[in-house]
């Protein structure tokens, strides 16, 4: 006990030696006022005395311990892992929730993830700064903010916001029914992987989303102050305890304070008496009062972890605030971040939150917002049926076995399978043919752009969303979902092999399947071609499922077709080879997008032997008299037998037909789309362009 005898402690506190002996052996427990006297006598804090864990031997209270700079003069001006992602709450929601999914306990229950925003000011902010020992940190922040490098500029902006506006935004990420940060402070385990190390994912589940150990860096990247506090309830005991395991980590650049150089990271914890040399901080078991002061109180004793991001900010919302509609609205407003968190959770995890067929969802997620601890936006539970209705309908039909072979009625979900030929590891043999599940259903505006294919694997997080190319003219809006690996179901052949293969093909952002170093190393340099083949097969299967008979296609679009016109038909000059003219528009199909833009798909007839010079698509409003107003294109895409170069279509040699699509720029519409018609023309490069 800090090198003091029982008699010396008894004299300092004013009790008998027998009383001290009873406390040490556990036969008695001192009263609260006596505990405070003991803490003063030992030079520590009351929580240490109450908990009486092994770190009590340090005799020193919880404090910040900074890593000394290396003696060889090396300098790190920031955590490189934090730059792998944007400081964007949407990215944070994707990465942090994926980690929670990967840490879900295998008990048939969902992992529950809650995001809590809390804007502190005034006395509440002052009390929180005192709880994190801000006075100890101030000189380090001033040194870090004085540098002109990128990290220093971000820190400087965070300090300026806190001091000049008396405001600090906290963002807490809580998960329940998860493993928690188990394991030793330093040895292999979940705790060390998150708190001590970089590029250590420690993922054990076969369908885990993470594989790089980089996702946790988004927690620190989202903090302008580089500060995250952690409270974990463990699924298995450590040092005989489970609840309120606390630690804080600070990521700053190299700096000099009071003539001494510091490497960068620092930890908020108990000094470890068993580590020789420099001070090293370890986690500690806190009491409820300390946890409350640090704003880390969890709602129950259910295992999981709470991460408190101090000084949270959202780069993406700054861009939103630059618009005229954002004038006068706080750049980092709680309201903006609240909404963006809800949208990101719905967009990326709708499948993980979907139940069906007697099975619970893998995930439940919610967002709530406070100001100085008082609710300003009620907790909103993210509902996949609201955020992504068509895709959720498709996935639920798969879970319930309610799919059909072909779409014949509205609301149906068609299912087929597509092959993924998994290569053998390190280029030897074959991993088997996996059959991924493809689902197609009617589109819904709330799901985003129609005509899209969403891909995912076992953890049910959206990996990629992309348009399906070369669709027939007149195709009705749809949403398609590809379930690969373990997402395809327990009966899917070679699901584990496909899961491992696709996981190796994902970059740190886990937002696509393609060539990666891991894929080249573990499989072969050409293994990525199997993914390209899967994508081609999936797109082809979608086109087959959504194909509409020609007569039905024409009837279904007749009402909108009356508002469309093909213009610019001209008799081309005779070509020297005896050709018959220039390419002309032959078919035009369109629908009105959710933002009011015209979304068109056009088919071009190319005369045999005719003039195949580049042509520029031009969109105009159809008016009764006078010149037709020209609309700009917000997007123009070459789909089949053509290429788009500098806004002009270049047609494939020998092709007889070509297809392109476009979306008009709503800002150039003089009237609402619903009140106008549309004319599309093809012009030569010599004519005026839109």
Structure keywords:
690 residues, alpha+beta, five-stranded mixed β-sheet, 20 helices
Describe what this molecule looks like in 3D.
This protein is α+β, with helices and mostly antiparallel strands and 690 residues long. It is built from 20 helices and 27 strands. The strands form five sheets. Strands 1, 2, 3, 4, 5, 6, 7, 8, 9, 10, 11 and 12 form a twelve-stranded mixed beta sheet that branches. α1 packs across α2 and α5 packs across α13. The longest helix has 19 residues. The chain is elongated and about 110 Å long. About 6% of the residues have low confidence.
The number of helices is 20
Q: Taking Cα atoms only, what radius of gyration do you get, to the nearest Å?
A: 31 Å
Ends distance? 82 Å
- Which of globular, elongated, flat, extended, rod-shaped describes the shape? elongated
What's the average pLDDT?
A: 82
Q: Uncertain regions: pLDDT < 50 for 5+ in a row?
A: 53-58, 208-213, 321-331, 550-556, 569-579
Total strands: the figure is: 27
